[in-house]
Amino acid sequence: MELELRHLRALRAIADAASIGRAAAEMGCSQQALSTQLRRIESHFGEPLFERNTVGVRLTRYGAEVVTRARDVLARAEAIGRRPAEEGMPRPVLRLAATNSPILSGMVGRVRTELPELLLTVSSVYESSQIVELLESGELDAAIGVDYPGLELRHSEAVEHRGIVTEPSFVTLPADHRLKHRAEISLADLAEDSWFITPDDGAGWPGVFYAACEAVGFTPAVVHEFLGDRLQLQNMIAEGLGISLTQATTRPVPGVIVRPLIGTPIWCRYLLAWRKESIAEQVVTTLFGSAAASYRELIAQAPHFQAWAARTYHGTLP
User: Which one is the CATH code of 168-267: 3.40.190.10, 1.10.260.40, 3.40.50.1370, 3.30.1360.40?
Assistant: First the structure.
């Protein structure tokens, strides 16, 4: 088989949807036809690009490399024939910010592919309350922020927001932790552990964490406030210096394990917020779709999250 652009588009669609069925629906073909095409593509590469599971598919390590290169090829191919902006005409700028979110990198890549005429600038803003201030003052056009159930993001009528996903908070532990053999862990059983906690995020954190601890009868004995590189945090956890709540799609480094909490006592919502007068509806749609696709890809690479979802939702993600 000779590899064609349509094959790369099929791989991209399956990776974005994390499901052959959903990808087939988006491409307007049958699931059987797309499955057959995928088998031929995998035969061409000589090994599987996706692993099948109860909630869909996820990329293998080799598949992730192939899809990354496929995205680059497709972006270049889709740019062919586009007329460059007239000389002297500035490109429109989209000023995007994000809090501590794993969604951002995959989202940005997709937006640049879908909206190549935009000049995208990206900044890091930790506090969601500050994100709202920057949107309302016109210093940002759009952002990825967070809030929590019962503590929904507040803003003026100049700003709108839309939830991308509400996910459970999991816990990151050293691989030799005393509870390592448990598939799910009770928050109460972690009462004596030292915790790494990120500072006030302007949306309700760490108050929601302390409230969850209080609800099960304890106050964390030792707390290290930490705001920095996630890899550095995982390395400190691997050394046994403490534990931490984490995003459900976190990929653990060697020496670290990620486990769900029994009863999912803490949830966090990622949301897209934007300044209404700054962005066209088409751009908002692209931003939201790119963020959602980025999150689906994160799920596809997080077997611990898939296992939790299979147990909790009987094989169907919420």
Answer: 3.40.190.10
